[in-house]
Amino acid sequence: MLATPFSVSTLADGVVASGHDATPEGSGPSVLLSRPATGHSVDQPTDDTVATARADLAAALAGLRAAGGQGATESDLVALLVVAEETRRALDRIVVDTTAALQRRGTFAERGYRSPTGALSDLLGWERFEARRRVVAAESVCETVGLGGEVLPARMPSTAMVFADGTASLRHVDVIARVLNSAVAARLDPETWAGAEVQLAAQCAAFTPTQLHTWGMELVELLDQDGAGPEDDAPVQTNELRLSRFRARPGGKIAGRYDDAALFAAIAAVLDAGAGPRDPDDDRPVPQRQAEALADACNQVLSRGKLPETGGRRPQLVVTIRLEDLERRAAAASLEFGGPLSASTLRQLACDAAVVPMVLSSTGVPLDVGRISRTVPDGLRRAVTVRDGGCAWAGCDRLPSWCEVHHVHEWQHGGATELGNLVMLCGEHHRLIHHTHWEVRMVHGLPEFIPPSWIDRTRTPRRRPAARAS
């Protein structure tokens, strides 16, 4: 615990904070709490307990600010710095605990977010690396829910203890998680791994996060005395790829093996081009990045590339839809390989894809097979690219070649395929527009995005600060 001449434990009891660290110059604590950077209002708390804790926190912060006033001695100011750091660590723990509780309840997933990192970034105005750091901490030092719904203890219990008592900062927790998630640590047996976690937690008081990382990597390498296992004998040369569709749900599974180095290198080069992190704070696991890169590459080839003909025709996506659903403006459909589509996914696919609509009668008899048409012509797509320069979502830097074009006013509802009704979005943000309560609109010819009320009660529109060069 940090040495301090007086206690700030009341600050850590029941307070939910936004995670902002500094008060604007010349403003008091009430400004910090009532005007967070995200623009959402906390002046109307939904729970009396939170409202009371917030008022107590404001009073405590006012007291701390007063303690550093003109009459403060040097000793007072030094003590104030220690208390301020202790308070920050206590608030970090509350944010992590609250994030873990929301994850256990599935709150972020219910609101359409695949990852809590994106939800925290949008809700609190954090950079993604800030959000990711807290998500990693929540998954490491808090209880989690298993696949069967059972509550599991913290993965790093010793680290959880030193984080709870203020000995370890959030950065210490992040470093310990990175060390124990390394390839070297993955080779340790469970007992040795747990012992390493205990030793790392015990050093938080003595080391800065950077020092702890260096020391920790030396520790796990020392514990992994045998190193990586020897390579097995070379297998029989095999090149194979299997695609199987899930029987009980949409989607499918791809499994492959390439012993031919040249074939594997060609595939790896394609994946490497698209599976790299979008920025240093991209938190997607490597398997997810690779899976999405492969799908993106296939989508690009389908829409703009050249493929061998299959049965005398170029391969395209075939969307099968019942006549009744077509008359109801496409309530449901299914893909030739991928299975059933929800209405929102179908609308997303129809935004910027070459598809063959196949209409079926109520008994499943094909009534009509439509011709292939490209909703957004290449020339118009180039105009959208010049204007948006890639994904138009505020804070996203996905390049145009990996983006799709979305109709702001949906095409099937009469929206025109023209520049003033189109916006360029990457796959992740295109999905958010179609599957969550985010909205997009055009203002003076430029797109802006309206967050759902749970992220911003005022629903203040967001847009990219300045046009980026194409």
TrEMBL record:
GO molecular function annotation: endonuclease activity; nucleic acid binding; zinc ion binding
Keyword RNA-binding: no
Annotated region (Disordered), positions in chain: 17-46
Domain HNH nuclease residues, every copy: 379-431
Entries under SMART domains matching the protein: HNHc
Record keywords, A-Z: Endonuclease, Hydrolase, Nuclease
CDD domains: HNHc (cd00085)
Origin: domain of life: Bacteria
Membership in a protein family: Belongs to the Rv1128c/1148c/1588c/1702c/1945/3466 family.
Protein name: HNH endonuclease
